[in-house]
């Protein structure tokens, strides 16, 4: 079985913060791409009215998720929570209790793969 952990996080943009989102997202993506080699995928999507945002993330394994949050917590978490309110977080794959604990503030629900493949 794959050790890959991925998630879809749906968020509302806090009132009046729509113009502040892009700069933070670009900083976060740049940091992950430069400093997190086991972060495999990170994409943010915004609605036309800039009131909702969805992020798709994929990590090589649980250790990669924890490395991401070590960076995210110190560099971005405060600004992230000022801009966004989590609506739904679905975590896919064999996320450990430690990973789910880190994601608890986002209301994460974990689903296990029961069939499929990865190329």
What features would you describe in this structure?
β4, α4 and β5 form a beta-alpha-beta unit. The mean pLDDT is 95. With 119 residues, the protein is of the alpha+beta class. It is globular, with a radius of gyration of 14 Å. The protein contains 4 helices and 5 strands, in the order βαββααβαβ. Strands 2-3-1-4-5 form a 5-stranded mixed sheet.
Could you give a quick summary of the protein structure above?
The protein has 119 residues and is α+β, with helices and mostly antiparallel strands.
List keywords for this structure.
119 residues, alpha+beta, 35% helix
Number of strands: 5
Order of helices and strands: EHEEHHEHE
Quickly count the helices: 4
Shape: globular
In quaternary terms, these chains amount to: single chain
- Average pLDDT metric: 95
- Strand proportion: 25-35%
Radius of gyration: 14 Å
Query: Can you give the helix content as a percent range?
Result: 25-40%
- Give the strand line-up of the largest sheet: 2-3-1-4-5
Main β-sheet description: 5 strands, mixed
Distance between the termini: 13 Å
State the low-pLDDT regions, or none: none
Structural category: alpha+beta
């Amino acid at each position: 079985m794959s050790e890959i952990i991925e998630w879809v996080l749906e968020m509302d943009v806090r009132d009046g913060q729509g113009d502040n989102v892009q700069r933070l997202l670009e900083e976060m993506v740049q940091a992950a791409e430069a400093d997190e080699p086991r972060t495999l995928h990170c994409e943010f999507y915004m609605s036309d009215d800039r009131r909702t945002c969805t992020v798709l993330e994929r990590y090589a394994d649980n250790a990669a998720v924890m490395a991401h949050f070590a960076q995210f917590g110190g560099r971005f978490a405060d600004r992230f929570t000022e801009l966004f309110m989590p609506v739904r977080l679905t975590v896919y794959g064999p996320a450990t209790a430690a990973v789910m604990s880190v994601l608890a503030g986002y209301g994460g629900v974990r689903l296990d793969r029961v069939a499929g493949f990865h190329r």
